[in-house]
Each structure stands twice: as structure tokens, then as C-alpha cells.
TrEMBL record:
Pfam families to which the protein is assigned, alphabetical: LMWPc (PF01451)
Domain of life: Bacteria
Keyword Transmembrane in annotation: no
Gene3D superfamilies (UniProt xref): 3.40.50.2300, Corynebacterium glutamicum thioredoxin-dependent arsenate reductase, N-terminal domain (1.10.8.1060)
Domain Phosphotyrosine protein phosphatase I: from-to ranges: 105-230
Gene Ontology biological process terms, A to Z: response to arsenic-containing substance
Entry protein name: Protein-tyrosine-phosphatase
């Protein structure tokens, strides 16, 4: 395994977004995009009718679109990423409200930009647990896109991050989480009293080469497997 260097996001030596300007995207959808989101709002409302009327679901979807538009480097994907983000937020609302039962442990990984470590950890956790653990990821200061080498490293082990996108910490998803894993470099934020908090000292992959990213990926894999074992021990009826 390649040695793990210090985290550049902590030292400030590497800027969050060194690759150029973020495209200017209107915070409100227009034209065909607006129409697509209207249809998505109808679909989401049909799925979660107990959470409010169609107008409130549409408003939440537009909020997802607006907050992702601030940093997204892929405006052509905003409608689909906003719909995915809104669906996750609504599911979290339903779990927190008790209208949706979730039998699986729920883990939220949080790093600085949600562009590398937290995305890889969430994908690894769901895969290594066989779907028995539900994982989400977020960033305290979301980047514009997932780092290309994170995509490459995960693709190498058969876990492509095709649908991954950086997103902020959402209050509803945070409330629905049972375990929150904080990576070095994540800015402080308020945590619900009920969540178990873990701190993982795994460096940011920003500025690394592919060999170093593979080392981080493999380190995350080991920690994820350890987390799965911990969660299994906490299950009712578990015996050593």
C-alpha cells in the first residue's frame, strides 16, 4: 500500500477548486429543465404523499436544484442530481417522522468537499455490507464534482461512482442517520444528540496521484469492514 501523505485540505496548501471556474448556472430551472423537475415533483409526491402537498415537494426539489447549482461543474446533470438529492431528503424526512420504517443501520460520511473520501467510503460500505447498511455522504463545503481519480480508483475494483455528486450536509439526512463518520478537514457543525460520531483520520485525495489514491481507497476499505463488524455487534440478538 502506498504511504498516506498529510491532508492538503487541512494545511490550506491546495485550494478546494484548483481546476478553473465553476460554470454559471441559474439557481432556478428554466425551459425543459423546469418541466422535467415538475414531473419529478409529481413522482416524488406520489411516493411520499404523507410529507406534504405537491407544492411543498416541488419547493424542496427546487431547493435541491438551487443548492447544487451553486457549485456543480455539470449543469447538464443538474436535473437528475437534484431529483436524486430530493428523493434522499424526502426519504430521510419520512424515516425521522416515523412514516417509513428502515430496518438497516444508516451511516453518513462527511468530509470537506464530498469529492473523494466520503464518496468512496459510502460506496464501499454499501457494497461490503451487501446492502445491509445504508450509506450517504456529504461535504461541509461541497466541491463542483467528484475527483476523477476517485472515479478511476473505484472503477478499478468494480464500484463505479457514475451517479455520485457532491452535496452539502442536509439537516433531514443528518437527523435520520444513526452513525456519522467525520473525516479530517470537515468543518464543525451541530450534530444531533442521538447519533454515534466517529472520527476517521484518512487524508484528502486532492492533489494525489493514482497510487496514493489507491492507498486511501484500500485504507477506507479496511475501516469500512471494521465499521460493519461494529454495527453487526450492535444488532439486537447478536451473540459473539
Amino acid at each position: 500500500m502506498a504511504p498516506l501523505p498529510s491532508d492538503p485540505s487541512i494545511t490550506g496548501d491546495v485550494p478546494l477548486d484548483p481546476t478553473g471556474a465553476i460554470p454559471v448556472v441559474p439557481s432556478a430551472p428554466e425551459g425543459m429543465t423546469a418541466h422535467v423537475l415538475e414531473r419529478e415533483a409529481e413522482r416524488l409526491h406520489a411516493r411520499y404523499p404523507e410529507l406534504g402537498d405537491l407544492a411543498s415537494v416541488h419547493a424542496l426539489l427546487l431547493d435541491s436544484y438551487a443548492r447544487l447549482a451553486r457549485t456543480s461543474r455539470h449543469p447538464e446533470l443538474l436535473a437528475s442530481t437534484a431529483a436524486n438529492d430530493a428523493a434522499a431528503r424526502l426519504r430521510a424526512k419520512a424515516i425521522a417522522a416515523g412514516t417509513l420504517e428502515s430496518r438497516h443501520p444508516r451511516v453518513l460520511f462527511v468530509c470537506h468537499g464530498n469529492a473523494g473520501r466520503s464518496q468512496m467510503a459510502a460506496a464501499l460500505l454499501e457494497n461490503r455490507s451487501g446492502g445491509a447498511v445504508k450509506a450517504r455522504s456529504a461535504g461541509t463545503t461541497p466541491a463542483g464534482s467528484v475527483l476523477p481519480l476517485a472515479l478511476d480508483a473505484m472503477r478499478e475494483i468494480g464500484l463505479p461512482l457514475h451517479h455520485a455528486f457532491p452535496k452539502p450536509v442536509d439537516p433531514d439526512i443528518l437527523r435520520a442517520a444513526q452513525t456519522v463518520v467525520l473525516f479530517d478537514g470537515a468543518e464543525p457543525f451541530d450534530l444531533p444528540e442521538h447519533v454515534e460520531v466517529q472520527h476517521w483520520s484518512v487524508p484528502s485525495i486532492r492533489g494525489m496521484g493514482i497510487e496514493q489514491v489507491r492507498g486511501v481507497r484500500d485504507a477506507l476499505d479496511l475501516q469500512v469492514r471494521g465499521l460493519i463488524a461494529e454495527l453487526q455487534e450492535q444488532e439486537p440478538g447478536h451473540t459473539a
